[in-house]
């Protein structure tokens, strides 16, 4: 029988994606619930498909991160959180508390770095793990015993990435994705592209290279003089973006306590109590089936 992987969930990424994927939902009293419903439905689906799986959740801390300190415009331009979504944050924390599994946030670090740290811990123990997110940045974690369950947008099927799948899609292995982003840019994080360089060119430039430093060390291998000039003109930007895009796996997690845990039947029943308050009748039925098979 296959061992269930540890599920490492990118909480806010999944919560935001659920909000935008579903139509307006609310309780009879008018409390908005669309993000809560979508997030909960995904959670139950994962627990059904990965029976016996342990869970851990990563959250962004409210403080600016080291990336904001290094680059003032990092993630600038993102739309403010809609009131109908922020109104659901309190209930989200209720759901996580009900599950009684580890929830991590580290001031100065992003949830992505927390997930990278948890993934490194799983990898060091040869523990199969599945990082669940809708954030492309997390694909750099898809190697060793860790895969990434990438949640699709607006009804698209999720895709599970291992190292080979990342290489097939981007032309570079997961470890090279920060270098790829440094060349091709990432609009969601407000990291600029190098003029004239898209994904295909970035992949070709990085072939056989461990990082952008190696690209510059062997710049004579780039046949186009114009492209060499462009790269040199943007060297500082490229190396800076590469550093910002690379996830850190040294987030200071608490030394005491487990890194992940299996939600107990009593925790799932506590989750059901929150579902009742939110009037999630369909999800209550799914939850009861899950408890019955626990």
Describe this entry's structure for a reader.
With 294 residues, the chain is α/β, with parallel strands linked by helices. The protein has 14 helices and 6 strands. Helix content is 47%, strand content 8%. A 6-stranded mixed sheet has the order 3-2-1-4-5-6. It has 2 domains: 192 residues, 5'-nuclease (Rossmann fold); 72 residues, Orthogonal Bundle (DNA polymerase, domain 1), CATH 1.10.150. A hairpin with an 8-residue loop joins strand 5 and strand 6.
Write the layout of secondary structure elements.
Layout: E1 6-10, H1 11-21, H2 34-49, E2 55-58, H3 66-70, H4 83-86, H5 89-99, E3 103-104, H6 111-124, E4 129-133, E5 146-150, E6 159-161, H7 163-170, H8 177-184, H9 199-206, H10 212-217, H11 225-233, H12 235-245, H13 265-278, H14 281-292
Parallel strand pairs: 1-2, 1-4, 2-3, 4-5
Antiparallel strand pairs: 5-6
């Amino acid at each position: 029988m296959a061992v269930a992987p540890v599920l490492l969930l990118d909480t806010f990424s999944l919560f935001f994606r659920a909000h935008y994927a579903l139509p307006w939902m609310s309780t009879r009293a008018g409390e908005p619930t669309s993000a809560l419903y979508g997030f909960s439905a995904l959670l139950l689906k994962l627990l059904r498909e990965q029976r016996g799986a342990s869970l851990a959740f990563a959250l962004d801390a409210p403080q600016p991160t080291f990336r904001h300190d290094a680059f003032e415009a990092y993630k600038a331009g993102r739309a403010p959180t809609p009131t109908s979504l922020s109104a659901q944050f309190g209930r989200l924390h209720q759901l996580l508390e009900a599950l009684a599994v580890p929830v991590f946030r580290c001031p100065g670090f992003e949830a992505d770095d927390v997930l990278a740290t948890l993934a490194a811990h799983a990898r060091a123990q040869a523990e199969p793990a599945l990082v669940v997110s809708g954030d492309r940045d997390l694909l750099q974690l898809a190697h060793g015993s860790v895969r990434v369950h990438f949640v699709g947008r607006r009804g698209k099927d999720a895709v599970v990435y291992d190292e080979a799948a990342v290489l097939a899609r981007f032309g570079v292995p997961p470890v090279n994705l920060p270098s790829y982003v440094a060349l091709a840019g990432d609009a969601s994080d407000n990291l600029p592209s190098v003029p004239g360089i898209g994904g295909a060119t970035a992949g070709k430039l990085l072939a056989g290279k461990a990082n952008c430093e190696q690209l510059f060390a062997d710049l004579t291998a780039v046949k186009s003089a114009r492209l060499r000039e462009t790269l040199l003109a943007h060297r500082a930007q490229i190396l800076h973006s590469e550093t910002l895009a690379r996830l850190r796996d040294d987030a200071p997690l608490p030394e005491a306590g487990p890194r992940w845990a299996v939600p107990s039947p009593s925790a799932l029943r506590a989750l059901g109590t929150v579902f009742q308050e939110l009037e999630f009748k369909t999800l209550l039925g799914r939850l009861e089936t899950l408890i019955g098979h626990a």
